[in-house]
Structures are given as C-alpha cells and as structure tokens.
Amino acid sequence: MKRVVAVWDLPTRLFHWTLVGLFAGMWFTGTQGGDWLRYHIWCGEGVAVLLLFRLVWGFFGSQTARFSDFLKGPDVIRRYLRGRLPEHQQPGHNPLGGLMVLALILVLLFQVSTGLFASDVDSYLYNGPLAHLIASGRSEVLTDLHKGFFNLIMLLVAVHVAAVVYHRVFKRQNLIGAMLSGRKAFDAEVAPLYFAPLRLALLSLALSAGVVVALVLGAG
Q1: CB-neighbour burial class of residue 215 (10 A; exposed 0-12, middle 13-18, buried 19+)
Q2: Radius of gyration over every alpha carbon of the chain, rounded to an integer in angstroms
Q3: Are the beta carbons of 187 and 2 closer than 8 angstroms?
Q4: Three-state secondary structure string covering 161-220
Q5: What is the C-alpha end-to-end distance of the chain, expressed in Å?
Q6: Which of 30, 44, 137, 206 gives the lowest tally of CB atoms within 10 Å of its CB?
Q7: What CATH number did the domain enclosing 82 receive?
Q8: Domain that holds residue 185
Q9: CB neighbours of residue 4 within 10 Å
Q10: DSSP readout, 6-37?
Q11: Which pLDDT score, from 0 to 100, does residue 220 have?
Q12: For residue 33, what pLDDT is reported?
C-alpha cells in the first residue's frame, strides 16, 4: 500500500517555481535587448534574492531542503546507481538530483554575479548595477562571460528536464506533481521529517532581499 507523505515545504516549492518564472523572464528579456534590459536586470536581482534565500534555507530550512540531506558522498551515490538506496530512505532529492541542485545554484550564482557587473555594450543605458565599480574593459569581459555562460545553464536545465521526464516515464514518479503539492507516495514507511517554521523562511527571505537591495543601492 502506498503511503503519501509531505516531503517539500512551501518555501522550497515557492522558491522552485518563482525561480523558473524569473529565469524564463531573464531569458526572454535578455534576448530582446533594448529597453527590455531594464526588466532583465530586475529579474536578475530577483534571482539573486532567491539564490541567497536558498543558500540560507539549505542550512537552516526544513530537512529535505538542507544540503546535508541531499549532498552525498561517493559511497551513497554508488548505492543509488546500483539500486540499493530505497526511495523511502532518501525521500527528498536523490543523490544525483542533489548534485544537480548544487550545480544549478552555482551556475546561477555565477550568472547573476557577472550580470551585476555587465555592460549594455549597445547603448550603455542598462548596465549592471555594479558595472560602474570596475573598469569598462573588465565589464565588457564579464559581459561576454555572462552571455556565453548562459549556454551551460541551458544545458543543465535540459539535463534536469530530461531527468524529470525519465522518472515520470520509466520510474512512474511524478516529480513535478510532488514539487507542486509537496507530497510524494512511497512503498514503505518514511521516517518523520523536520519542517522549519514559516516565520524562519520569511525572515530568511527578508534578510536575503535586504542584502541585495543594500548592495545595489549602496553601490549606486
């Protein structure tokens, strides 16, 4: 008999889907150029807030959101690849999924960081909020990195989507539904999971937003 268990907390789910929306917005506004770059910058600053929040939540949030819960060593990864790690023992991200989460966070952090110092080389009307702090030549180098690095992000996104489809087709696991509802079905009993209070998530988000706002406005 299947057991349906709450696995993902609301802050983690909102982070995931808000990041998807802002990433799509960054992609669209970035490819349009021109006055759309104003909104591209806003989306990037929003992603920066989300990433800072996720880093905090990865240490102090609910059990399945913590890095210590899903970032595993080689032995555990080998167990998973050999089918010796039952899902109910790793109800959140599996070891490979955990590595993907870390990779996406790191590449997005790099992308946002370069975007903060990038230049609008066409009109210089919509430079990154910190571009004026460095020499124009360095800013243009970071702009090239910012544009080129996007291809790596899209590759990781494609791998991530392919993994979701693989789990849906071959393992009959609806990962999208789980990230929407927060609940997953298991064949065996799952040990009780810790869920952090919502007020801690709100505090973490407020602090993350405060850091980004202070950084942008303080450098203005």
Answers
A1: middle
A2: 19
A3: yes
A4: HHHHHHHHHHCCCCHHHHHHHCEEEECCCCCCCCCCCHHHHHHHHHHHHHHHHHHHHHCC
A5: 59
A6: 137
A7: 1.20.950.20
A8: 3-218
A9: 11
A10: E-S-HHHHHHHHHHHHHHHHHHHHHHH-TTHH
A11: 65
A12: 86
The residue assigned the tokens 């240490």 is: 59
Q: What percent of the chain has pLDDT over 70?
A: 99
Domain count, the chain: 1
Residue type present at position 122: D
N residues, the chain: 220
Amino acid identity for residue 158 in this structure? A
The pLDDT value recorded for residue 123 is 76
Sign of CA dihedral 125, 130, 131, 133: positive
Overall average pLDDT of the 7-25 stretch? 97
Angle at 201 between CA 179 and CA 12, to 5 degrees: 15
pLDDT value at residue 45: 96
